[in-house]
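Self-study notes.
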Amino acid sequence: MAKFTPGTYEGKAYGNGYDSKPSSVVVSVTLSEDRIEDVKIVSHGEIKGVGWGLKTSPVETIPAAIVKHQSLGVPPVIGAEKTSNAIIKAATKAIAASGADTAALTVPVPREKHGDEERTVDFLVIGGGAGGLAAGVQARQGGADVLIVEAAGVTGGSAARSGGKVMAPGTKWQHAVGIYDDPDLLYDYMMKQGKGMMDPKKIRFFVDRAYENLLWLENCGWKCQDVEPIHESIVPWRVYNSEGGSYMSAGQGGHITYAMHSTYEKLGGEIVFECSLKNLIVENGAVKGAVCEYAGGGTLTVHANNVLLATGGFAANREKLEGLYPQMKGYFTDVPKTNVGKGVAEAVKVGAKEYVSPGVQVNYMSISSAFIGIKEEAGLIVDADGNRVVNEWSYQYVVGDALMRTKKDHAWYVTSGKDNYATVQAAFNAGKTSDPKDVYADSLEELAQKMGVEYATLKATVDRYNQMSANGKDEDFGKPAEFMFPVDGPKYAAFYYTPCITVTFGGLETDIAARVLDVNGKIIPGLYATGESAPTGIYGTIYPGCGTSIGTAVLWGRVAAGMATGQPVE
């Protein structure tokens, strides 16, 4: 008896598109009477370097896996689960359209199991995000035998999911549009943002090399689309978009990591996927390699005189993050699930010093269909008690830092629909969003009750705000008059703001050469770190500007590789 009705069928599901908007993944499945003959991606809008573009990406591997195993139960690519599951779901719908019973095709297919393996290389890089890929390229350019071990099934880490922005002063792109900038100006800006917590030597080192770092990325194949401001209130413009990026876009970071990945492969570099750090190997006080574990089973022991930790931050480690910052309870993040701080934890076990930062990169936003907060909407924002605490027309991470310091797990965007933002007006006029925590009311008193705040507190805040709006002067926080939108009814809404975290600031302490330091401030021989594994001295409590994380990760990844290969990055 035939299992299928022969033919070609299509199905659609939603994946992981740009700008927080899911993309349509359309899949066609060709069936014979007893086999899945072919699975093809008809169209998609997934992230380059994560969903597609690499040999191991879901678009390249999931369709073939379904055919090979004759199953819809194939495992998703680690780190690219949204795209993987969208392809599987779309294929399931396509097969269901033939009238077949898809339940019989969903028996889980186990991940590939490896035997215990042992390798020796010159330079071991653990983590294939921006910093790890940069180190791999730099080391291969120096002629070293390099191995990158990546816990996910794709490279790129959180950088690939980002807006794909980098920051530098005094560049050809600035000169082309008449912008004057230099390293001293960027240095002063970053030191001011750090509020005394920055390492002056590291910041100086970064700003003096940031432009060369961009040219190095360009040489890898990255293309700068244009230059834009960190925020409208901050000049000069010094943030550079990757292709397709603009303002608070997301997903274009794959253009940066894809360029480095491709360059690394062209240089003969090797990457082992879905293999995570288990522990470091130490001999006579020096790090001499690492033991790693495959997701499907089996260990990989790598001997190396130089090891770089580029395993990312810990935004996916909810227990640790909420333990350190209780006010972040219930936070949202879209970083890879492998970002749990494993590299830092294992380094601490061998004597490394971990710095716990008082802050993280946090943006407060609605996670409903409105997504108010992503585009830096600057109406009335109040804390969980109904108090105003910041000039809302500030860089979004300045707003986030102020709200984080209230020690509460949420905030509110309060409006009567008069704000000059399409997102706010659309959500207000709709009278509902997909987030049940968003509230609507016919009076301010009713709104306060639904928000769970004291009416007297909210009324005092709104009355004060409206009076300053009418007077055209924000005497409390200095917000420009054109952004003082009154909240005066007749209807009201309050959109629930959840803390959203991408970059974590705490990590290993390193010197300017990316060498990891122990609890006594001494260098641990053979051990290096970059990116979110070692951001100490690069941040205060405020994220200084788009591109800081990628730029510093790439630079110190290259520095570590230069040190390991005896060809220092000047």
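Second protein, same conventions, sequence then structure:
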Amino acid sequence: MSSRESHGLLHPAGSPEDAWWRHAVIYQVYPRSFADADGDGVGDLAGVLSRLDHLTSLGVDALWLSPFYPSPQVDGGYDVSDYCGVDPVFGTLAGARHLVATAHERGLRVLVDLVPNHTSDAHPWFVAALASAPGSPERARYLFRDGRGDHGELPPNNWRSIFGGTAWARITEPDGTPGQWYLHLFDPHQPDLDWSNLQVRADFLDILRFWLDLGVDGFRVDVAHSMVKAEGLPDWDEPVRMIGGAEHSSPQEAPAPMFDQEGVHEIIRSWRRLLDSCPGERAMVAEAWVEPADRLARYVRPDEMHQTFNFPFLTAGWDAEALRKVIIDSYVADDAVGAATTWVLSNHDVVRHASRFGMPDPTGRPNGIGARDPQPDAALGLRRARAATTLMLALPGSAYLYQGEELGLPDHTTLDDDLRQDPTYRRTHGVELGRDGCRIPMPWSAGAPALGFSPTGRTWLPQPAMYHDLAVDRQDGHPGSTLELYRELLRVRRERGLGWGSLTWYAPLADRPDVLAFHNGEVLVIANLGTRPAPMPEDTHVLVSSTPEAPTDQIAPDTAVWLVSAS
């Protein structure tokens, strides 16, 4: 291999003996859309159980289950009405216990979603709060406030909901008169809890214990940075966004009063103490849209979370310089606190990267793509998505995959607006299309009803025609398919120890800002994000290429390769 020069070691190697979550590949299952066993058109836990072989053949280490709790399903289950149960649409508690046990038998760990910022308005806590008087212990669980104005007719402050509109809803008191207002950072059916309330804290520790006793290996914590609000709930004049964008002011300014407050760390530490007291290596990952990297790293100090999602990596787009900066900033910040870095390109809240990277601006972050919008270049988007994943899975640390990305699934970008269910679409009056396009049911078998998702052919959202050729059975065993690329990447990643490896920049391509090149141990990774070919180093052998045919003397644009010495 040509010169091993570098700009110095950026990230030191770990060990295969490190805790599993420091180098795991974790697969997100969105149960509504993964597999439907009972034929009602909505995925369920029995469907997940029936497809565990897919996950083991893929080579992932764990699965994360998005919410399956009892819920009115206003926001895809993130409006929870019972934290210690299973919604009948998904199955039973016994079924959840069986799924966790069976996954463990297959060598898969299981994370479940924890939704601590808000409950459903159908939760017994909130129902009791509505039936109780202002100032009562029942109302103290939530952020009820008197309104402003002569008659309390104005919201308590000017906060806006992340889903659009005001973040406050006014109730009618038990006596029929207009009453107090309650905070909802998301939908009005999702009232925010008051985490200064000691009973709320005690109840959530019990919820964590319940699932830990059932056998789960940890939790993905929904909007973990939002639980604590600034004292006095001061007005905030800046835009408030989280899904698909930044939710705070610039990094140099104080965080928004509804996000990233100091008190959240005390809550996280109490949870960490509980997890550390349990047998096995239990872990938590925070959904925390926090910048800059050194501030986000505070969530993964040794006595807090085990991981945070690396959203700056996801939002950097198809841009080599932006990705390089995120990689450097992430390792510097996380290594300083002894934390593992994570990597992610898609999830249930963002346009899939196979679509984002095919847009006219591949660095953009649309909150949904509709039939009247410019449409992605499907072939270009898939080519870049495969290259981006090849880059991501070579980085030391832990990686998250979103169901269907191993098939190269794009968003449904021509979904009929009348079928949209994301509350964002309704609350913004269609200005924001929302996240339905990335939540389309999985295609398993091209010739089966609902492409194998449901035995009856029913689907809660329709599958686009292009999913037919991307179904699992159309790719399984076919060299060059996206499914086989993922399997190969995960196999080589494991065999070569890339997850616990080291990162050193590769100097000979330093003059190409559109190329990312680094060593992870003995593997040289080159990702060409530019518009002209990059030279292939001499005396190298291609381990894996993002393209169906491995390059020989040049690395084409929109291509990533893993190389080793040919000698």
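Instructor comment on the second fold: Confidence is low (pLDDT under 50) at residues 1-6, 243-252.
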